[in-house]
Amino acid sequence: MENRIATEIAGLKLANPTMLAAGILGYTGLSMKSVIEAGAGAVVTKTMGLEPRTGYPNPTVVQTNCGLLNAMGLPNPGIRHFKEELNKLKNTRAPTILSIYGSSPEEFANVAEIAVNIGADALELNVSCPHVKKAGAEIGCDPLLLAEIVKEVKKRVDIPVIVKLTPNVANIGEIAKSAEEAGADAITAVNTVKAMAIEIETCRPILANKFGGLSGPAIKPIAVRCVYDVYRSVNVPVIGCGGITSWQDAVEFMLAGASAVQIGTAVAFKGVGVFNSVAKGIQDYLERKGFKNVKELVGLAHKF
Ligand SMILES: Cc1cc2nc3c(=O)[nH]c(=O)nc-3n(C[C@H](O)[C@H](O)[C@H](O)COP(=O)(O)O)c2cc1C
Fold first, then answer.
1. Does residue 157 fall inside a structural domain?
2. Does 190 sit behind a cis peptide bond, omega within 30 degrees of 0 on the bond before it?
3. Is residue 23 in some structural domain?
4. Contact 115, 125 (CB under 8 A)
């Protein structure tokens, strides 16, 4: 069978356009290895910062009837301690994208430099976490600060730099443009949608942090619209993320303008087999519709 799903994004070669989204199974080398062996085209790690961080107290995750609501607070061992985990991914066939955060352009650039030294193939800048003050969506809502961060990181590293955006803004295209002009090599759209849940017997917000980020199928139409907007605004590749559970969802994101897709919550509900089933479904769709390569799908919905 002719391989129609192998692709390339910002110089990264992918066996197929599926990726593990940040924060789901991206804590250890072995868990990411299992995702690659299950068929993912690339993996994104849990977001790492300069120093270890414990995250928020429990409860940090709530299952709602339309998706997962989380406010983990970016728990991570600190980027230096992640070297050992990345070593376990050497000689795997899929690129490892290290997700990073910082509280200033300088800190972002310092973390980025360490990420390169410990073996990252590319970086994803998390400027979009909806529940972490001074390091998350506050940056992703401010095009000038975002541009400063991207410029500082690009000065210090020469691997691809992907910027992951928040959907919680009025004009995501404008933010994406600002990241592109500052040198971003690709844009991931999107992180979770800011949300909350309240327990009616105790009358209290359920998450310890009160607010969190909604993920899963509930946010898919929001994410598709964001990808569509970003694709119209920039010339760098867009990576779609938000509520993808099937190959049909992945194709929809590609028609909106995504060159690849990230899968998060569906891995928690369906297991790692989701990567192979999405990749195979895209391959079959391309054959049935007579497309020679997955790249031919990207942005087709913009013709109408
Ligand atoms: C439990 C959990 C932890 C997450 N941690 C991170 C993270 O560390 N960094 C990040 O950029 N996104 C993080 N995300 C967001 C996901 O990467 C993704 O953008 C979002 O969940 C939407 O995709 P999905 O609907 O496929 O899950 C997390 C999501 C969940 C559910």
1. yes
2. yes
3. yes
4. no
Q: How far apart are CA 234 and CA 181, in angstroms?
A: 9
**Residue 18 near ligand 1, beta carbon < 6 Å:** no
Atom of ligand 1 nearest to the CA of 216: 25
Give the amino acid at 266. Answer: A
Give the three-class secondary structure for 96: strand
- Whether 129 is catalytic is yes
Tokens of 178: 């600002």
Note down the domain range covering 292.
7-55+72-194+215-303
Tokens 């969506």 found at: 137
| Alpha carbons 22 and 27: distance in angstroms, whole number | 9
Among 27, 190, 192, name the best residue to mutate to test ligand 1's pocket (greatest count of ligand atoms within 8 A of Cβ).
Answer: 192
Kindly state whether residue 98 falls inside one of the protein's structural domains. yes
CA dist 12 and 93 (Å) reads 11
Q: Residue 290 is part of a domain; what is its CATH number?
A: 3.20.20.70
Residue 286 belongs to a domain: yes
Residue type present at position 249: D
Per residue of the chain (304 residues), what is the pLDDT tens digit? 789 999 999 999 999 999 999 999 999 999 999 999 999 999 999 999 999 999 999 999 999 999 999 999 999 999 999 999 999 998 899 999 999 999 999 999 999 999 999 999 999 999 987 766 666 777 889 999 999 999 999 999 999 999 999 999 999 999 999 999 999 999 999 999 999 999 999 999 999 999 999 999 999 999 999 999 999 999 999 999 999 999 999 999 999 999 999 999 999 999 999 999 999 999 999 999 999 999 999 999 999 9
* Residue 284 to residues 37, 98, 240, 277, 294, Cα–Cα distance (Å): 21, 31, 20, 10, 11
Structural domain total, the chain: 1
